[in-house]
Write a sequence for this structure.
């Protein structure tokens, strides 16, 4: 088990593989995200995608504001806000407002994105993604830490401006980055930005954490600061809890397999090019479906093998019925979290 008590977040993508009552599903996802607080989760994290049913939270700041207004304790994160697709001053202002509405509960996860179609829909070249990301993040940091600022870069030019409102958390909300490639992990460690990672094998996760550690130390950061950043980083796991293992697999398996039958998603989670069966994903730790006892034991084994402390629980994959997801979360909060924190 990890040295620090494990933390648990709910990951929200809102993927809808079939034509359905979208309004009802969107409202259901909001209910799921808000229910995470009462269920005992520490945080909820919102992904950003647009232009397909793969992910329907095109504006995580809108969903985050709604959650902030309906909750009082749970932290609200983005997993992630895709910086190159939006003007950074707009993002800085929107998420500062969320930090204010939530009274300092924002965790700001950022990333470049990876979908060329999404870039094209915004009229942005994906080849400019890294440059735009770095400029945008610099502007957001300036907006959150300076009373007035200006910026002149290759992609953004901002005259002297006051960014309001001021964020509640000082010097600014905690920053996270979606980290999968070696270059991004090295950048994160050098800049001491916490990581959000897809699952992968324990061996690969340990390698990521060690690469981050070495990059942080090489950049001159104190060992304690590096370890604190890693202790506050997260890994995604697909999780579904039911009364027994058979029911959990029957209810969650089809929606999960729709997601993993997409090639890009298999690669994100260290899967092969061909589509393996559900059993393969269970054996490789991408998903834990089962009774509370089974899921708790699986996560305990994962902690031991990977050394990772915090789990982003992807409870709703592929547009599952809201009432089933809520019941799964209730069981996880009542019977899994106490076992792992006990």
């Amino acid at each position: 088990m990890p040295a620090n008590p494990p933390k648990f977040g709910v990951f929200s993508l809102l993927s809808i593989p079939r034509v359905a009552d979208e309004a009802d599903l969107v409202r259901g996802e909001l209910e799921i995200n808000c229910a995470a607080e009462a269920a005992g989760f520490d945080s909820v994290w919102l992904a950003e995608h647009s232009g397909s049913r793969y992910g329907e939270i095109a504006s995580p700041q809108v969903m985050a504001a709604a959650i902030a207004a309906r909750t009082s304790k749970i932290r609200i994160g983005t997993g992630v806000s895709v910086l190159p697709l939006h003007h950074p001053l707009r993002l800085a202002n929107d998420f500062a407002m969320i930090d204010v509405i939530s009274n300092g509960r924002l965790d700001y996860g950022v990333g470049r994105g990876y979908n060329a179609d999404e870039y094209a829909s915004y009229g942005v070249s994906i080849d400019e993604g890294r440059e735009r990301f770095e400029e945008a993040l610099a502007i957001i940091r300036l907006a959150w830490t300076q009373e007035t600022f200006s910026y002149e870069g290759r992609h953004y030019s901002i005259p002297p401006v006051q960014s309001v409102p001021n964020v509640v958390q000082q010097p600014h909300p905690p920053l996270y980055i979606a980290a999968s490639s070696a270059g991004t992990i090295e950048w994160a460690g050098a800049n001491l930005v916490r990581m959000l990672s897809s699952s992968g094998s324990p061996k690969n996760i340990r390698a990521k954490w060690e690469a981050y550690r070495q990059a942080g130390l090489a950049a001159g950061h104190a060992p304690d600061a590096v370890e604190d950043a890693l202790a506050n980083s997260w890994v995604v796991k697909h999780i579904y809890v039911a009364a027994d293992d058979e029911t959990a697999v029957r209810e969650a398996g089809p929606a999960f397999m729709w997601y993993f039958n997409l090639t890009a998603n298999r690669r994100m989670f260290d899967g092969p090019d061909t589509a393996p069966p559900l059993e393969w994903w269970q054996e490789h730790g991408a998903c834990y479906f089962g009774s509370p006892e089974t899921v708790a034991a699986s996560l305990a084994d994962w902690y031991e093998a990977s050394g990772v402390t915090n789990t982003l629980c992807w409870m709703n994959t592929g547009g599952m019925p809201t009432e089933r997801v809520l019941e799964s979360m209730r069981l996880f909060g009542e019977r899994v979290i106490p076992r792992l924190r006990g």
Notes: The chain has one domain: 8-257+284-341. Residues 282 and 288 are 6 Å apart (CA to CA). The domain at 8-257+284-341 is CATH 3.20.20.30 (TIM Barrel).
